[in-house]
């Protein structure tokens, strides 16, 4: 069994900082969409270049309001969770799922047209990089270092090991 190495304070700070920055990005994207009454994912989904039938189904009239609501709610909840350090493993999994959906709607695969992007990519784009960063957040329990989980963990330790 591999022992967990001790991390320096700089390494720990870097992991927490990455979690906070990703959380801010998710929260910002969710809030902007929430307060923009005309926002919808319909155009993005209909312009999908990969798995087109699945994304067109998500953009259908019967699904789009559910998809829009779930997208906004997931972005906001993942963002808040990552920022405050509460249930970050669940937030990371949900965030990775969202990012992979965005990635596969417009993947930077050879032979596929580039979707809405800020540059030219080949196989790797910002969505894939952020998903990989969230996987790192998932693997390292930074919420026990800086976050609400640290408070809960401290209380559990105090109640399970009372001082005589």
TrEMBL record:
Keyword Membrane part of the UniProt annotation: yes
Membrane association type: Multi-pass membrane protein
Transmembrane parts of this sequence: 7-27, 63-83, 90-109, 129-148
Keyword terms, alphabetized: Membrane, Transmembrane, Transmembrane helix
Pfam (any one): DoxX
Official protein name in the record: Thiosulfate dehydrogenase [quinone] large subunit
Sections of the chain in a coiled coil: none
A Gene Ontology cellular-component term: membrane
Chief site of localization: membrane
Source organism per UniProt: Aquiflexum balticum DSM 16537
Cell location: Membrane
């Amino acid at each position: 069994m591999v022992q967990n190495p001790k991390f320096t304070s700089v390494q720990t700070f870097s992991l927490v900082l990455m979690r906070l920055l990703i959380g801010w990005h998710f929260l910002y994207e969710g809030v902007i969409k929430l307060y923009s009454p005309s926002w919808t994912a319909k155009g993005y989904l209909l312009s999908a270049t990969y798995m087109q039938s699945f994304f067109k189904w998500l953009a259908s009239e019967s699904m789009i309001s559910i998809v829009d609501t779930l997208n906004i709610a997931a972005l906001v909840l993942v963002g808040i969770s990552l920022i405050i350090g509460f249930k970050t493993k669940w937030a990371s999994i949900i965030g990775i799922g969202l990012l992979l959906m965005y990635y596969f709607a417009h993947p930077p695969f050879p032979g596929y047209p580039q979707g809405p992007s800020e540059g030219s990519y080949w196989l790797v784009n910002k969505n894939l990089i952020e998903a990989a960063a969230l996987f790192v957040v998932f693997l390292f329990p930074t919420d026990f270092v800086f976050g609400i989980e640290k408070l809960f963990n401290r209380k559990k330790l105090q109640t399970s090991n009372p001082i005589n």
